[in-house]
Design brief:
This protein is α+β, with helices and mostly antiparallel strands. It has helices at about 1-15, 85-90, 115-130, 140-150, 160-165, 190-205, 265-280, 300-310, 315-330, 335-340, 375-390, 400-405, 420-435, 445-455, 460-475, 480-495, 515-535, 540-550, 555-570, 575-590, 600-630, and strands at about 25-30, 30-35, 40-45, 50, 60-65, 65-70, 95, 100-105, 175, 180-185, 210, 220, 230, 235-240, 285, 290-295, 350-360, 365-375.
């Protein structure tokens, strides 16, 4: 299903002119080599541009220009390209950052008679001189003279290359004439015409076996080695389909011929996948898994809306932000998710929408999940997820990456003791981290969470347990709306899917008589009394000492806390003490029984939400009082 869907998406992109034609590759070009008519290098001009999609706009990160060059080789071994862009082939030199000098030989190759760089340069010159034979234009002639007279050993003191520094080792280059940076070698009509004739002939004369393609159903040449996928989990190139072991082969078929996928289908699915991975509004990274998503019709509006709701980023930011504002207002007013989806203009809610998770392994890409659903259904489920998570004060969607960060533990570096040096302390810390599995977010947990969001199914049980553990073990400032929203979502969705009434509202519920909820509110009030009595000068409050125990075994803790509160009330003036004591008494009076001896995981979540919402009301009252004074 995945490869077939990607092939269909390629056809949509091709109609819009968004993918490269057959026989060409997109190459990142960092600089242009300006040649004189005699083939000398006059200058190297940086042609990178500012990254308009960078998260930090102030950083002004520069990215290469992607240009259309004749198809690049996929081989990692020695191989040539027509109209080369790789510096090791063009110059046959390497820049040593330590000595700030150029060399034809790396240190590891010092015993070789001829370095790989010299061999590369000779291969580049030979193949490209053969290709441009018979072509006569000013730029091509300058390119020919450059290759004929360039000797790497004679260019070790070249000031232009030395001035380019370490970028010389990794940048991509294009050729132009001095004074004409807009006229590039690979855009010359004669070059393109000859390359297309040459590429067509090579395709027609290939010896790939003919068989029925399992994707298109047609009898076509079957690709033996599939094209590479770029930009997955930090790896430069991987394959989606490969056969690396002879044990996987059958019927005397070699490598990926066993998959029966034609060269045409391979080109389509790899081009489509690389296009999606290159676009910010089509992919996101969670831990080591890359999630990509697209609408089968190619509607960018669908991608922007899903990206804004799930990832927190979008290409059409102004329009999408207005839509998000309206969605969250409708959620606050209790509008049903289906009504919100039906109210979206210019969106085909019946179009198929795909979400795919892939993760690199040593040999290939592993497909972790494939979701296919109508866009309207996915949107409805995603909005319902945000409705489940929303607490009072949330004005923006809580993204998947924000959830991942919230589930990570807050760690403090241990200080080495007097008789333990920093090196030993670092090793001890590393050992402790590797042995404690609770300090990591399980990839399986994130995959199940994503599945629950897309399909509207119950959240994984481990999600509630992980969120509770993070709240108990983290400092007070880490009891944030993301962690508390997750707890609320787990509790409310579980109740709703069982046909029960949702238990937790977005803001403080003064009518909620759940013992666990009341215990959480009561704990917050007792903390307020302690803070007021000490005038907020305490380093530790009952939150630091008793919160985890109170959330687990209220009966064993609250009797002591109530006793302590009497000592704190004695330090307050009569009016304040009376008011705060009355609030505590009212909450205790709402409890229909004694303090629970033990709370289940769900009840612990209810306790924490009662505490959190009561605490937020305190801040709201303070903010309102400050505003009134102004």
């Amino acid at each position: 299903m995945l490869i077939s869907a990607l092939c269909d998406y390629y056809d949509v992109l091709a109609q819009k002119g968004l993918v490269l034609p057959d026989g060409y590759s997109g190459v990142g070009i960092h600089a242009k080599i300006a040649l004189t008519e005699d083939g000398e290098i006059e200058s190297i001009v940086d042609c990178r541009e500012n990254d308009t999609q960078a998260e930090n706009k102030k950083s002004k990160k520069q990215v290469p220009l992607v240009m259309k060059l004749p198809k690049r080789t996929e081989k990692t071994a020695l191989d040539r390209n027509i109209i080369e862009h790789r510096p090791r082939y063009i110059f046959g030199l390497i820049y040593d950052s330590k000595t700030s000098s150029l060399s034809t030989i790396e240190k590891k190759d010092s015993k070789k008679k001829e370095s790989d760089y010299t061999i590369n340069q000779k291969l580049f010159a030979k193949s490209n001189l053969e290709f441009i034979e018979g072509i006569n234009t000013p730029l091509v002639n300058a390119y020919r003279r450059f290759m004929e007279q360039w000797v790497p050993e004679d260019q070790l003191k070249n000031k232009i290359l030395l001035g380019f520094g370490k970028e010389l080792n990794r940048d991509g280059f294009a050729f132009c004439l001095a004074g004409r940076p807009d006229k590039l070698l690979h855009d010359e009509p004669e070059i393109k015409e000859k390359w297309e004739r040459m590429y067509t002939a090579s395709v027609e004369n290939n010896d790939d076996p003919i068989a029925q393609c399992c994707i298109t159903g047609e009898y076509l040449p079957i690709k033996s080695v599939h094209d590479k996928i770029k930009g997955i989990g930090g790896q430069s190139r991987s394959t989606l389909v490969c056969y690396n072991n002879e044990a996987d082969e059958s019927y005397c078929k070699k490598q990926s011929v066993n998959s029966c996928i034609s060269a045409m289908a391979v080109k389509k699915y790899t081009e489509a996948l690389n296009y999606l991975l290159a676009k910010e509004n089509h992919r996101t990274f969670i831990e080591k898994t890359t999630y990509i998503y697209w609408a089968a019709s190619g509607e960018e509006a669908c991608d922007d809306i899903f990206s804004a709701l799930s990832i927190g980023d979008t290409m059409d930011r102004e329009h999408t932000d207005k839509w998000l504002d309206s969605v969250f207002k409708e959620i606050k007013h209790g509008k049903a998710t289906q009504e919100i989806v039906d109210g979206i203009d210019n969106i085909d809610s019946d179009v198929s929408f795909y979400v795919v998770g892939v993760k690199p392994t040593k040999s290939r890409l592993a497909v972790k999940c494939v979701y296919r659903q109508s866009f309207g259904k996915i949107l409805q489920n995603t909005i319902q997820h945000h409705s489940d998570m929303q607490l009072d004060g949330d004005e923006r969607p809580i993204t998947i990456n924000a959830i991942y960060k919230a589930l990570m533990p807050t760690k403090r570096d241990p200080k080495p003791s007097d008789d333990e040096d920093k090196g030993k302390a670092k090793k001890r810390k590393s050992k402790e981290e590797s042995s404690d599995s609770s300090d990591k977010v399980s990839p399986a947990l994130m995959a199940k969470l994503f599945d629950a969001i897309i399909n509207g199914t119950p959240y994984p049980d481990a999600l509630l347990a992980t969120a509770l553990r993070r709240v108990k073990t983290s400092p007070d400032d880490k009891m944030n709306n993301v962690r508390m929203g997750l707890i609320k979502a787990c509790i409310n969705r579980s109740a709703r899917l069982k046909g029960k009434q949702e238990e937790i509202k977005m803001s403080l519920d003064l009518e909620n008589r759940d013992p666990a909820y009341l215990c959480g509110r009561l704990f917050c009030k007792l903390e307020d009394i302690q803070r007021c009595a000490s005038k907020d000068k305490l380093n530790r409050t009952i939150r630091d000492s008793y919160f985890s125990a109170a959330a687990t075994r209220p009966a064993s803790v609250f009797s002591r806390l109530l006793s302590l509160s009497q000592h704190h009330l004695a330090k307050l003036d009569k009016k304040t003490a009376y008011r705060m004591d009355k609030e505590v008494t009212e909450i205790i009076g709402m409890m229909e029984s004694a303090f629970p001896p033990r709370l289940s995981l769900k009840e612990q979540g209810v306790f924490m939400l009662g505490y959190y919402q009561q605490k937020n009301q305190r801040f709201e009252k303070k903010a309102a009082a400050d505003a009134a004074d102004e």
